[in-house]
């Protein structure tokens, strides 16, 4: 009888021990999942952010006492490199700089983020050159549409797409100001980008002339970049394909980096103008140009 009582107590205590052990495993698994969730929801380096205030100071160090080296405007985007005490480190005109994190918000991933994987171009610098500006309107199209205005809108979209891949993007102008050709060349040659992309729209005296084309100056990397971008554009754009052409534009001829100039349609052609002013078209060419640059650099 004593033996029976002993074994009953033994197995009963074993059962309690097993239940305690199982509860401990369950609790451990729960907290492990919470920890993993916290890691996956935390903002990652390489994420894209948008400025949500009218003007945001860019400083040389992560502090309000840091020297102001520039400003970002509302709607500007950037890729976060790292974070320190409420400050995000960014690339600003080719240099590392800092902005306060409480004045920005994460940008929703682009539809093509699966293809344009975050960080794919993080080791590369791209100069995007919005042509004309300020006192130089460029071509004047139907209804007084100015080439310089459409160029700037398109160029900012291209910069956003490139930023989403982690690239360091330098715009030769970010607003309606005049920048000389020599200054554009200087910006490129000083920063030594992996690619220089000059954005334009075309014009002609005859209404029926339309389409898009890509220019290069020298054979080798210039031509390779032009072919890569133009092939991507041809897959995305429904305007007439005018091909890849060689020309001696100054921003190409004196550029030390692979460089192209793209004419994205004719603002003197009624059909082209209706198309190129749409959000769909401008986002499409931004995607295609980013795709072409990505293939040129990585494949």
From TrEMBL:
It comes from the Bacteria. Keywords: Cell wall biogenesis/degradation, Hydrolase, Membrane, Transmembrane, Transmembrane helix. One of its GO terms (molecular function) is N-acetylmuramoyl-L-alanine amidase activity. InterPro entries: MurNAc-LAA_cat (IPR002508), N-acetylmuramoyl_amidase_3 (IPR050695), SH3-like_bac-type (IPR003646), SH3-like_dom_sf (IPR036028). Residues 46-108 form the SH3b domain. One of its GO terms (cellular component) is outer membrane-bounded periplasmic space. SUPFAM superfamilies: SH3-domain, Zn-dependent exopeptidases. The chain crosses the membrane at residues 20-39. Pfam families: Amidase_3, SH3_3. GO terms for biological process: cell wall organization; peptidoglycan catabolic process. This is SH3 domain-containing protein. It comes from Ornithinibacillus caprae.
């Amino acid at each position: 009888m004593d033996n029976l009582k002993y074994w009953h107590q033994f197995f009963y205590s074993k059962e309690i021990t097993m239940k305690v052990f199982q509860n401990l495993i369950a609790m451990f698994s729960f907290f492990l999942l919470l920890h993993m969730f916290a890691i996956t929801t935390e903002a990652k380096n390489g994420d894209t952010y948008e400025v949500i205030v009218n003007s945001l100071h860019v400083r040389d160090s992560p502090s309000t006492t840091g020297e102001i080296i520039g400003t970002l405007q509302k709607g500007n985007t950037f890729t976060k490199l790292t974070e320190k005490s409420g400050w995000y480190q960014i690339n600003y005109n080719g240099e590392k700089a800092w902005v306060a994190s409480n004045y920005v918000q994460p940008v929703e991933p682009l539809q093509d983020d699966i293809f344009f994987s975050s960080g794919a171009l993080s080791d590369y610098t791209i100069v995007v050159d919005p042509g004309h500006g300020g006192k130089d309107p460029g071509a004047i199209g139907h209804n007084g549409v100015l080439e310089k205005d459409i160029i700037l809108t398109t160029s900012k979209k291209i910069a956003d797409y490139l930023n989403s891949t982690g690239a360091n993007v330098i715009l030769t102008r970010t607003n309606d100001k005049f920048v000389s050709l020599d200054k554009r060349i200087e910006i490129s040659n000083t920063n030594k980008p992996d690619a220089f992309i000059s954005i334009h729209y075309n014009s002609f005296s005859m209404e029926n002339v339309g389409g898009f084309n890509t220019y290069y100056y020298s054979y080798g990397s210039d031509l390779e970049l032009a072919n890569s971008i133009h092939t991507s554009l041809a897959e995305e754009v429904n305007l007439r394909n005018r091909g890849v052409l060689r020309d001696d534009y100054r921003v190409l001829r004196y550029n030390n980096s692979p460089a192209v100039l793209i004419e994205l349609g004719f603002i003197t052609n009624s059909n082209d103008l209706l198309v190129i002013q749409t959000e769909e078209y401008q986002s499409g060419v931004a995607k295609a140009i980013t795709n072409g640059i990505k293939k040129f650099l990585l494949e």
